[in-house]
UniProtKB/TrEMBL annotation:
The chain crosses the membrane at residues 107-129, 150-168, 174-194, 235-255, 267-287, 299-317, 329-347, 359-379. This is S-type anion channel SLAH1. PANTHER family: S-TYPE ANION CHANNEL SLAH3 (PTHR31269), S-TYPE ANION CHANNEL SLAH4-LIKE (PTHR31269:SF56). It comes from Capsicum baccatum. The keyword Hydrolase does not apply. Homotrimer.
């Protein structure tokens, strides 16, 4: 442990007056103070001050700054892996634009899937450690109207990665076991959050609803699509019904711009792109359940396109959030990628040039956005770590402890 000296309290020493020398040990979450009493016969003309401040543990500082919002990164990478798998899958679509994607080497897809797995495993490990060593922070996050919604993100990421895996088929036992492991937490969070909306005092929907609330819906829809891939249509319909029934209520609530939706700070405005993700994922889920990209899937896909155009036509909405890089920027990538996956299913069903151009544009846009975000993240990785000023605890002369 490193000790540094500084001035906190002043104790005047006079003749035959005992000196109380405080010793401070500043740790991650606590301050311990001990006193040594020294008798002296010699008068002192100056105040005596002794202090020992211990630097916080650097790794603990990282855990304290880490939060569920970082799973935006895994959502993006895992959905990208699923997009690449969808584009490279064999189909009866022989359009020349579709053949472009089939020329991509399989090694590139495996590397992307491995990168997504590594990032998701690392983020999951960090959050598990945060749960163990900073349980109060996790508890506060669970009670926050925005933070609680990102607790769905790791399970959504695992389900997306499971559907994108190149190593086993949906009907194998490994897929089945992992599906249960990842879906049960989503259902448990559903019961908690939806139950609060319906029954609990002040936590009614109109007061807490915000764009990130759509992650709870997306979790059900991703689980429904994975269940349909296994041939479990009844389970898929169950999850789809839960997700869509709450999506309709949530969408109307957000559309009215009630107090909850205006509680998002400017830095988090990229989460408005989640408006695209919910209908796009719903179209994919219904396609897997019904076995065809029918009119219902098309309507949901068209809704996501309309919302996309509505958002990009208002760049001023995101101006303040783009002034400085933040992990919230990753909220752009996941919705665009899900919409691109839906466009591939639409093009496969329609089989005309316009639909394939749309697929090409959306897929290219999602890949470019993801690559740009990875570059920005690499060059700004220090912004996610504690700075020097964050590694010390400063005590003021009026005995108040402040953490900078």
């Amino acid at each position: 442990m490193v000790e540094t000296q500084g001035i906190i309290f002043f104790f005047y020493q006079s003749k035959n007056f005992p000196i109380y020398t405080p010793h401070f040990t500043c740790e991650t979450n606590s301050l311990s103070i001990s006193y040594e009493i020294m008798d002296t016969k010699e008068p002192q003309s100056l105040p005596v001050t002794r202090v020992f401040v211990t630097q916080k543990n650097h790794f603990s500082s990282i855990l304290s700054r880490f939060h569920a919002g970082f799973f935006r990164i895994s959502l993006s990478l895992c959905s990208q892996a699923l997009l690449w798998k969808t584009l490279s899958e064999p189909s009866d679509d022989i359009h020349k634009f579709r053949n472009i994607f089939r020329m991509l080497p399989s090694t590139a897809f495996i590397l992307l899937w491995s990168l997504a797995l590594f990032s998701l495993a690392l983020l999951s490990l960090l959050y598990l450690l945060r749960l163990l060593f900073h349980f109060d922070m996790v508890k506060s996050e669970f009670s926050h109207h925005v933070g609680v919604n990102y607790l769905f993100a790791p399970w959504i990421s695992w389900l997306l990665l499971l559907q994108a895996t190149p190593f086993f088929k949906p009907k194998e036992v490994y897929f089945l076991v992992l599906w249960w492991i990842f879906v049960v937490p989503i259902v448990a969070l559903d019961i908690k959050i939806y139950g609060q909306w319906i029954t609990k005092g002040k936590r009614f929907l109109s007061g807490v609803a915000n764009p990130t609330s759509q992650l709870s819906v997306i979790g059900n829809l991703v689980g429904a699509r994975a269940a349909a891939k296994m041939g479990w249509n009844e389970s898929a319909l169950l999850l789809f019904a839960i997700g869509m029934s709450h999506y309709l209520v949530l969408f109307v609530t957000l559309y009215q711009r009630l107090p909850g939706s205006s509680s998002i700070p400017a830095m988090l405005r990229p989460v408005f792109f989640l408006f695209l993700a919910a209908p796009s994922m719903a179209s994919l889920s219904w396609d897997s359940i019904h076995g065809k990209f029918d009119s219902s899937s098309k309507m949901l896909f068209f809704l996501s396109l309309f919302l996309f155009l509505s958002l990009i036509s208002r760049p001023a909405l995101f101006k303040r959030s783009m002034k400085k890089f933040n992990v919230s920027w990753w909220a752009y990538s996941f919705p665009l990628t899900v919409m691109a996956i839906a466009s591939t299913k639409y093009a496969q069903e329609i089989k005309n040039t316009a639909s394939h151009i749309l697929m090409l544009l959306l897929s290219g846009l999602s890949v470019i956005v993801s690559l740009v975000l990875m570059v920005f993240t690499a060059f700004n990785s220090n912004s996610f770590l504690p700075s020097d000023g964050d590694d010390s605890m400063h005590c003021t002369s009026n005995k108040r402890l402040s953490i900078v």
